[in-house]
């Protein structure tokens, strides 16, 4: 494991990558959308030039071959290689996609090329488990991992925990992404060097020992998610209230939004 390396799977516009770079880490970033990749590459070009950042314009895939990437026309962050995610977002939000052919790479081969990172951040809209499954082939694992938790199927969430446990992860945190903008970097730093940083909406936020909250056991973390899933069932976009037109208007008026969570795991 390279203690100075972070792999950011799902760079998007680079909020997380830039945070890791400022904290002094070397970063390998992965972004499938060619337009977003180019924009982020231009913005972070100085880090690329000095060798601190390697940016890959590929999609994590089950095969090393071209793959269809569905670029969202309303929110670029919803880009995905998963047709199930496309259908879900179209049905829930009425959003539109366009198809792009991009280079697909197995995550196993990316790890072989760049090494096992200290922290692995995964947020690729429906393909997160491909990255976790790739780690089965390696004796060494990242010290910390974070993934965007499954919010559509309880069985899917349990599968995530089962795989993380299989890989040797024993401690967990459930982090609401709605409140990331309120996070403050601790001083002295517990990960990398201390910086003053304001997190933008959509960023993954603090990681490792700096991530907010106490580490939980698997059963404790799953108990937290039981409450989260009840919230989804009542207030979510496919929940009891939202399905009623009057209820939808009330939720929209009160600005009650469906939250999403990241699961952080530690060896």
UniProtKB/TrEMBL annotation:
<dbReference type="InterPro" id="IPR006342">
    <property type="entry name" value="FkbM_mtfrase"/>
</dbReference>
<dbReference type="InterPro" id="IPR052514">
    <property type="entry name" value="SAM-dependent_MTase"/>
</dbReference>
<feature type="domain" description="Methyltransferase FkbM">
    <location>
        <begin position="8"/>
        <end position="170"/>
    </location>
</feature>
<protein>
    <recommendedName>
        <fullName>Methyltransferase FkbM domain-containing protein</fullName>
    </recommendedName>
</protein>
<dbReference type="InterPro" id="IPR029063">
    <property type="entry name" value="SAM-dependent_MTases_sf"/>
</dbReference>
<dbReference type="Pfam" id="PF05050">
    <property type="entry name" value="Methyltransf_21"/>
</dbReference>
């Amino acid at each position: 494991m390279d203690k100075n390396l972070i792999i950011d799977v799902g760079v998007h516009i680079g909020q997380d990558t830039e945070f890791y770079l400022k904290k002094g880490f070397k970063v390998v970033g992965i972004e499938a959308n060619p337009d977003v990749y180019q924009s982020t590459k231009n913005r972070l070009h100085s880090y690329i030039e000095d060798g601190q950042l390697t940016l890959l314009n590929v999609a994590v895939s089950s095969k090393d071959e071209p793959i269809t990437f569905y670029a969202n026309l309303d929110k670029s962050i919803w880009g995905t290689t998963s047709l199930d995610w496309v259908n879900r977002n179209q049905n829930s939000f009425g959003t539109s996609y366009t198809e792009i052919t991009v280079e697909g790479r197995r995550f196993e081969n990316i790890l072989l090329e760049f090494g096992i990172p200290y922290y692995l951040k995964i947020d690729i809209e429906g393909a997160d488990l491909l990255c976790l499954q790739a780690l089965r082939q390696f004796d060494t694992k990242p010290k910390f991992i974070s993934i965007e938790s499954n919010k559509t199927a309880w069985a899917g969430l349990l599968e995530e925990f089962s795989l993380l446990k299989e890989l040797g992860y024993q401690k967990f945190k459930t982090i609401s992404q709605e409140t990331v903008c309120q996070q403050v970097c601790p001083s002295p730093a517990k990960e990398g060097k201390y910086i003053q940083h304001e997190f933008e909406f959509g960023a993954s936020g603090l990681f490792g020992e700096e991530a907010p909250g106490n580490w939980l056991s698997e059963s404790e973390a799953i108990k937290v998610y039981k409450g989260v899933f009840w919230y989804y069932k009542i207030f979510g976009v496919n929940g009891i209230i939202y399905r009623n037109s009057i209820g939808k208007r009330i939720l929209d008026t009160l600005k009650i939004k469906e939250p999403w969570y990241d699961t952080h795991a530690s060896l």
